[in-house]
Structure formats: C-alpha cells, structure tokens
Amino acid sequence: MTQTLDSYVMLSALLFAIGFFGVLLRRNTLVIYMSLELMLVASTLALVAFSHFNDTIDGDVFVFFILTVAAAEVAVGLAIIVALFRMRQTVLVNQLDALKH
Amino acid sequence: MAHFLFTCLSTFTVVCALGVVLNKNAVNGAMCLLLCLAGIAGLFIQLHAYLLGFVLLWVYAGAVVMLFLFIVMLLDMQGGAVWRYRAFHVAASLVAAALLVCGLDMLAVRGRFEAPAPAGPAVGGSMKHLATELFTTYLLPVEVIGFLLLIAMLGVIVLSKRFEGSEGAP
Description:
Chain A is mostly helical and 101 residues long. In chain A, 76% of the residues lie in helices and 0% in strands.
C-alpha cells in the first residue's frame, strides 16, 4: 500500500472545492445541481478512504445509505426544477429573483 | 503499480470534474460527470470497496446521469443566451474554492490522520461482512431508507402531476 490516507483526503477536498466553485460560478440550475452531486460524491470518497484505512466496515455502510438517499434526492430535486421551469419558463438563477422584488 | 493507478485515476477524475464545472454545454457537462463518477468508482475499487464501486456506477452513472440528461433535453436549454462571466465573479468563486481547499488541507496536515496498523481481518470476505452488518446492526436504517424511497417516489409523482384547475379544464 503506497498511498497514504492523506492523499485520498486531499483528492476528496480538491473535488469538493471544484464542486463548490461550480455552485458559485454557474448560472444554470441543472449545472449547479450536478456540481452539488459532485460535492456529495467527493465526501463519500473521504468516507470510504477512512473506512478502508481504519479496517472497519462502518464507513462503507454509511456510504451505501448516502448513495440510496442521493438517488431519491436527485429525483425529487429534478422534479422541483421541472416544476419551476413550468411556472417561470427559465432555469437560470439570475432570472429567478422573485424574492428580490 | 498501485501508485501509478492512483495518480492516473485521480488526475482523470479532477480533469473531468473541471469539465463538469467549466463546460458551456449542459449535455457535455453531464457526460463529464459520468466520466468523473467512473473515475471515483475506480478509486473505490482501489480501496477494496468493490460493492460500493459497482453501486456507484449503477446508481449514479446508470440512473442519476441519465435522469440529468433527460431533464436537460426536456427543458432544452441549449438555445438560450450564453451568459458571460464577469471577472469579478470568477475571481470571487476561485477565492472561495481556494479558501475551502486550503482549510481542508490544513485540517488534513495538522490533524495528521494516523491510520492504525492494518492488522484486521482479510478484506476478501468484505461483501459477506457488509451484508451481515446491513441486516443485523443496521437493520432499522435499511427499513427507514426503504420507506424514504417510497415517500420520495410519491413526492415526485405529486410534484410532476399537473393538477386540474390550475391549467384550465381537462
């Protein structure tokens, strides 16, 4: 085993930061949602690495649950985005400013 | 060999993640997300979490990315005006992401996660071990998650149904 736990944690932090950058930068709600998914998967990578390097199975079980909940979450979130599009005819966050006025 | 594989997979994953974030076209972004998830599944497999790697591929690459592609094509956003990024906005996002990664790396360096000496059971029986844990220790969460999936399915049906009266008589 040549990799240390640190390298996996660094990679996970980097992927999380890239997802965060996308959430802040992009205007399209769907791309923001993809970046959020990227952040979630980055955090699961850290959990699996911790679980592997500590020789336990609990992190793996936790990631299993996270993946299940993420599938449900994506379905509900996309349904909300479609409902929003039906109502406002846009998915760009700079045009979804009803609370500003 | 393992180190080389880790380097390749992590570089590939980071490049694809940047592709998700920086791609102008949402369909190309979804495809980059697919490749990025494949890279992460490879990393899972390298961490001996074989089941989780395949579940990630099935659930995320098989279902979630397909759902994203369906919605992107349903809403048909490709003809929309291309929004130009202001330099201030890009700089602010970059600084925020850099601060986040610096903080996490400081935590990783300062905290010095010390992995205990691997003296545990062999990872060969990992799948059996995982199944035993899921259906004994974590039995209640499994049931709750099943119920949550049912509720999410009902919620999606309610959200995507057009109610009569709001759009005129059927």
